[in-house]
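Recap for those who missed Tuesday's class. We walked through two folding examples back to back. For each one, the amino acid string is listed first and its predicted structure tokens come directly after. Nothing is annotated here on purpose, so try labeling regions yourself before you check the end of the notes.
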Amino acid sequence: MTTIVDFAHRFGAGPRLYKGESPTLATPDGGHHIPYALKDFKLRRLTPIECERLQGFPDDWTAGISDTQRYKLMGNAVTVNVIEAIGSAISKASVKMAKPK
């Protein structure tokens, strides 16, 4: 299993390890904060495509610009499946409210 490693250099908190899903892909300080993956005790930088997948976007959604800008875009993006879940919940609630009593 791959572990996502988030080095919180900005806040001096040290590495935070997450198994499976990372709660966030942060890119503070102008994109100098790039997520890493830890597998078999080796650290590696996540690729832009892996960041797109973690955020729910199709592969190469941000292709055509520099990797630095791709990391920034994915760090500033709202995760697709979260927005879908919020939209679904709003839709269900509005249908319930619209039903006559």
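Example two. Treat it independently of the first, because the proteins are unrelated.
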Amino acid sequence: MNARCGWSPVIRCNINEMVEIHEHQRVVLKEDLPTLGLAAGDVGTVVHVYDGGKGFEVEFFTLTGETIAVQTLAKAQVRSVGPRDVSHARSRDDAA
């Protein structure tokens, strides 16, 4: 554990923000993308990393494997899956 993320009464650190994201890694969407029918918390798979991790091509799909969207996202729009994250199923509004 480095000093930046160790226990401290003053400094708080989100380890998910510091983990490097790679191709084929699952990531969590941090904001709603209503035009694509995606919501914050949806999980996607990185299919391409741009410019050393400044952006990502992410595929989002249903639990049965149907692709919903493949979207280019900035680093600030996604985060790594963390050890305390829990999967959650929701029905998608197909009108989006």
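Answers for example two:
The longest helix spans residues 15-18.
The beta strands are 26-29, 43-50, 55-61, 67-74, 78-80.
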